[in-house]
Design goal:
Layout lengths: L17 H7 L28 H10 L7 E7 L5 E6 L2 H19 L15 H13 L4 E6 L3 H4 L2 H11 L3 H12 L2 E3 L2 E3 L12 H19 L2 E5 L2 E6 L2 H17 L11 E3 L5 E2 L2 E5 L9 E5 L1 H14 L8 H19 L5 H23 L2 H10 L4 H8 L5 H6 L1 H4 L4 H6 L5 H10 L1
Parallel strand pairs: 1-4
Antiparallel strand pairs: 1-2, 3-7, 3-8, 4-5, 6-7, 9-10, 10-11
Helix pairs in contact: 1-3, 6-7, 10-11, 11-18, 13-14
């Protein structure tokens, strides 16, 4: 039990308090959202300046601080649906971050070891690795449960009860409740909020872990193998009968104890070959002595999204120079491979590399435009003048030329590399094999 006093946020020398630290946090040191009254006319909000700080300090200490309405913004999801984000004003984000910095150490020691989302020194790779270990240990019946609109369904009453078990400071609890009850502005209209936490606040990940930690404790008490990353969790069992029994009991626990609904369409009992987690899939290892063992691969939907991004960057009609195009390409490629480096994708990356190079060659061919310019550039690349003239007058389309020896023998991988292009396969091998 911890008796947190709200004065811990304010009784510090200027520049040394948790509130000043939260202001310097990357989560809040950015321009305000449109309509943020604290950011209008100034570009970047200066909440903790001498002008504003004494008033905010007094309001926080006295319990009279009133959060501003949060801005509701819908962002597209990869399945053509949308997700509603609740974005607080910059001033409120400072206080959210300060609360997070003080509450996180208190609750972190209570969190279970197989919870990997939004926690220090834990990440998605650890969650996927643990899932693979469970499967390779023979737990091939997986209870995959998808929570329906989790961030919008969290019970405020239950959440405040769980926080009260560890934090007894009335002012802190009152401040958290005010943040939870702050109305949301959707299409210019204020809507009351009586459940859910705003997905977009620095405090939301911690609050979601506090609620779902009760599920973790229940699974630990029963002795089940499980993996949870934020609101995505799966339970691993040896038999289908046990998986069906556990799935039903966990459904009742979520409904009756945590008051959380599940998405029945996306939930079910899976075998490893039909199970996907955080963008990774699981396929058998076809190697002698590796019977009933599995390895990680990239989910097909993740590959489709990657190719869509690469296709947009390498469109011949976008207004971008070759250097800018390569810079964007490398940025997407490095981030994607860093996340999916645990997967076995040698063959897939070979195919994507060939496809990207052909698209880059087509962009170059399109930029050359006129036949005379094509002749000059082909001669510079070492093609005899007669052949360069004939190639420049080809009736083939741009894609056919990119796939032909016309550009395959002139714009080589070595020449692309000198312009900054990095092969996805070579970068993947560098990360995985050193």
């Amino acid at each position: 039990m911890y008796i947190l006093n709200i004065k811990i946020y304010t009784d510090y020398p200027e520049g040394a308090s948790p509130l000043w630290a939260s202001w310097r946090s990357p989560l809040v040191s950015r321009k305000g959202v449109p309509g943020d009254r604290e950011s209008e006319g100034s570009g970047t909000t200066r909440v903790c300046t001498e002008e504003h700080w004494p008033c905010i300090k007094h309001q926080v200490e006295s319990g009279s601080y009133q959060p501003a309405p949060i801005l509701g913004v819908e962002i597209p999801k990869h399945n053509s649906k949308t997700r509603l984000l609740g974005i607080p004003t910059v001033g409120d984000r400072v206080l959210h971050q300060a609360l997070h910095q003080q509450l996180s150490p208190i609750f972190e020691r209570d969190f279970c070891r197989h919870s990997y989302g939004f926690r220090p020194n834990r990440n998605a790779h650890q969650a996927v690795t643990q899932a693979l270990e469970n499967i390779n240990d023979g737990y091939h019946n997986i209870v995959d449960i998808d929570l329906k609109s989790f961030f919008g369904e969290v019970s405020h009453e239950l959440l405040m009860t769980l926080i009260y078990r560890r934090v007894k400071c009335p002012q802190t609890l009152k401040l958290i409740r005010k943040f939870l009850r702050a109305p949301i502005c959707i299409n210019g209209k204020l809507v009351k909020r009586r459940q859910g936490v705003p997905q977009g606040s620095p405090l939301s990940p911690l609050l979601s872990n506090i609620v779902l930690n009760e599920l973790d404790k229940e699974l630990e008490r029963r002795g089940h193998r499980y993996v949870r990353y934020a609101d995505d969790f799966s339970i691993y069992l040896r038999s289908k009968a046990a998986a069906r029994r556990v799935g039903n009991s966990i459904y009742l626990f979520l409904r009756d104890k945590l008051r959380l609904p599940i998405n029945r369409e996306k939930s079910g009992i899976r075998r490893p070959g039909k199970f996907y987690m955080l963008g990774y899939g699981f396929v058998p290892v076809f190697r002698k002595g590796s019977k009933r063992k599995y390895q990680l691969v990239v989910d097909r939907s993740a590959l489709r999204r990657l190719k869509a991004k690469l296709k947009f960057i390498t469109r011949k009609t976008i207004p971008a120079g070759f250097a800018e195009r390569i810079a964007r390409l490398n940025l997407v490629m490095k981030g994607w491979i860093h996340y999916f480096r645990l997967a076995n994708m040698y063959g897939k990356l070979q195919e994507i590399d060939v496809w990207i190079r052909r698209r880059l060659r087509r962009c170059i061919w399109h930029d050359w435009k006129k036949p005379n310019r094509k002749v000059k550039n082909l001669i510079r690349l070492g093609i005899p003048p007669g052949m360069a003239y004939a190639w420049s007058r080809t009736r083939k389309g741009g894609w056919a030329v990119a796939c032909s020896p016309i550009l395959g023998t002139t714009i080589t991988l070595d020449r692309l590399g000198r312009r900054g292009y990095i092969s996805m396969l070579s970068y993947y091998l560098k990360l995985t094999r050193g």
